[in-house]
Amino acid sequence: MPHTWANAEHNAAAAAAALAAPGDVAALDAARAGYERALMIRTREASSDDWAETTVALADLLRDAYPSQEPRYLDRSIKMLDDALVNPPPDLSPAAYLRLSGARASSVLKKAELRGDAGALRRAADTFATVLAAARREDDVEVARIALTNRGMALGLLAERTGQPSDWKRAIDVLREALAESSAGALREWVSAAVNLSIVLYHAGGVEEAVPLMREILKRTEAGGFWTAWASTQNNLGNALLDRVEGDRDENVDQAISAYDSARRVWTREAFPADWALTTARLARAYEATPGGRDRAVALLREAAELVPRDERPVAWARLTNRLASYEPPMAAIACYRAAAEVLTRTAFPHEWAAIQNNLGNLYKQMADHRLLQVGAGRAPGRRGSAPVGRDSNQLG
After folding, report:
1. pTM to 2 decimals?
2. Beta-carbon contacts of residue 46 (< 8 Å; ≥ 6 apart)
3. Domain residue limits, the chain
4. What fold is seen in the domain 206-308?
5. 274 and 319 in contact (C-beta within 8 Å)?
């Protein structure tokens, strides 16, 4: 029977997606084709709830499984969910409508994160609050857990921009609640809540609480085969260890380097060029903390800078450019700082913008002092060498 065949195609696609190795586009394309075949029978007219189930599964695949440096997948995810919600079937159940709405908000949130769009982040947080309230009314615990975690993620991303303690507390409170509720759900739900909570704890200054949570995430994701989340957490652990005050400093740095290397084994340059580049830039920061590691750090930063596109990931590009400026000659450094400040603006990223202005001020002062020394020694002012000027006050992370 056609519907039995369509159900089998849907289930086979779900299995293929779950078994696909990170970055294996051919395997993901096979899963996508399976969902598309299922939608030939699972139409909005013939079976609206089944149509919604497969539409959400396909949108989730496009958003979460394909490499993030290919924006067309995420854009398609948003478009198909927009099309689904603009005129939903009249017999669509409230639960199915909720899942479509939640999936769309998740896709919009991811695009807002990549673009650094504060307005879109606020809208996503509000949408998740609406979906959460509706899911609780409908007693749909799975959708409620996902909405709660994603609302916490959106609030955390907004707190990164404001730096306000009250905003950090709000995000942490939401994500603690999400983690507690997800403990009764699927492993994937717990991992999502735990990853987001660990990131927010780290950025809010709770490194000593974040590190053991990250180590627990690594154990569970390795056991469950969630390799993308495992790689993401290795990256996050590296960031936290570099900023850790407790413990032996050399040991923390060595463990951070090991964590970044582990992440790069999953996020390979070939399959995930942008993620590989951002992790490589963070690895450079770790090498900066090792004796004689400056040359290695510079080489890694320059290699990473080639693979982060400004148009697709402007915030990450700006942070990397800001980092790289401290290794450039003065005029090139000024150009880097100014370019970074065009993205990390005073309005959207006040703390990072202020750090860039501080770096620029220090650079101008050092250039002026250098010229005065040259004049005092009876030499005409000349171009300064390529030694780093100061230390970048903003980390890439």
Report:
1. 0.83
2. none
3. 206-308, 326-397
4. 1.25.40
5. no
